[in-house]
UniProtKB/TrEMBL annotation:
<dbReference type="GO" id="GO:0005764">
    <property type="term" value="C:lysosome"/>
</dbReference>
<keyword id="KW-0121">Carboxypeptidase</keyword>
<keyword id="KW-0482">Metalloprotease</keyword>
<keyword id="KW-0479">Metal-binding</keyword>
<keyword id="KW-0862">Zinc</keyword>
<keyword id="KW-0378">Hydrolase</keyword>
<dbReference type="GO" id="GO:0005576">
    <property type="term" value="C:extracellular region"/>
</dbReference>
<dbReference type="Pfam" id="PF04389">
    <property type="entry name" value="Peptidase_M28"/>
</dbReference>
<keyword id="KW-0964">Secreted</keyword>
<feature type="domain" description="Peptidase M28">
    <location>
        <begin position="265"/>
        <end position="448"/>
    </location>
</feature>
<protein>
    <recommendedName>
        <fullName>Carboxypeptidase Q</fullName>
    </recommendedName>
</protein>
<keyword id="KW-0256">Endoplasmic reticulum</keyword>
<dbReference type="GO" id="GO:0006508">
    <property type="term" value="P:proteolysis"/>
</dbReference>
<dbReference type="GO" id="GO:0004180">
    <property type="term" value="F:carboxypeptidase activity"/>
</dbReference>
<keyword id="KW-0458">Lysosome</keyword>
<dbReference type="GO" id="GO:0046872">
    <property type="term" value="F:metal ion binding"/>
</dbReference>
<keyword id="KW-0333">Golgi apparatus</keyword>
Amino acid sequence: MRLPSLRLTLGLAAALLAAPLTSTAQTTADSLAIRKLYDEALAHGQSYDNLRYLTGQIGGRLSGSAQAEQAVQWGKLVMEKMGLDRVYLQEVMVPHWVRGAREKAQVKGSKGKGLTLNVCALGGSVGTNGKLKAQVIEVHSLKELAALPAEKVKGKLVFFNRPMNPLYVETGRAYGEAGDQRRSGAAEAAKRGAVGALVRSLSLAHDDFPHTGAMRYEDNVTKVPAAALSTNGADELSQLLKADPNLTVELEMSCQQLPETKSYNVVGEIKGSKYPEEIISVGGHLDSWDLGQGAHDDGTGCTQSMEVLRLLKATGLRPERTVRAVLFMNEENGVRGGTKYAELAKAAGEKHLAAMESDGGGFTPRGFSIEADPAVVRKIQTWQPLFRPYGSGEFVAGHSGTDIEPLKEQVKALIGYQCDSQRYFDIHHTAADTFDKVNRRELELGGASMAALIYLISKYGL
């Protein structure tokens, strides 16, 4: 049922007044100010249209690419048009890895049967220098690999086939636990004499999309190629190995690491009206992997962060503390942008009150995770009733974001915007991460939730 905005606003205010209050910050004035932010976002929000341009006209934005440079100039122009107090770039050197031609993988059975696998190189992998053909040994953990006799691994492709745990409601937990095989699988395989690594994609979905993502090598360990298999492909290969343990896989990848190149963080800010020396940062990462359009990861976080500033201006809610939107470069394969931002802040002697990050997709808002001293966490949690009418009232202690992590010793609170996570890892780091997977209302509600919390921090401090 559709209700007039005024009736809804008064109803929300009445509900908040009737609720038990644990802080003087939870006032009628605050509930009405927050309603203004949500009204503006839902009626005139620009996150979705900005994301349409970023994904459709620029596309995937891997660090060092021409598309990443285009995205920098786009982000700067969008914030300049907002009429902010300041918009500027922060120079940062970033890795420049290129995928090259589309990867190929074929299963060659000893009985003459073959199968094409859907694969993609993991970010940072070396290429195969032509075709690499080897037998395969399947393991389900780094520990299992370490326990194998060296002769069983030498000269083979190690196939890491541990799925994400489907029993966790919070999918990020499952992703984190399964991620060691992607990050370290190739290095650990090489230590045992393997010639490469195949890694089951980090996804709970069963489909044909391989998921890329960063992997790392170790000094003084041979660099061997590493590729991700789609979950369907991983299941098929596992079944084939049971029937034919001597089968081989032929892998072809032309990726390579080029010299580092210059790029930028993009920063826009509104000066605080009372305490301009106290800074609240909000951001997402502008780079993305190259397979898709980088929509949910993390175009949504970038457009929501810029929208925070626009919402504050459009509603006339001038923040008392300085609010910055930061589009970080190189989160995916280096975190150079987040590290540089923290370094420059420390060198300038800036006083950062809080930093917020949106890097979990643009799905339905749920709330925020907070890294801070217990007293600060409790203070932020007193504002929960103001967010419950909008479905974003879950305020929990927990990890808040990769790009803001380097600021940890310089701020009172790191805050992660949290949205529904059930669909995120279906498309994360794949060719399926495209604009059509984003819902306008979910995205705009998220930006409003972020703006509302930043408004309260800017008004009351921490």
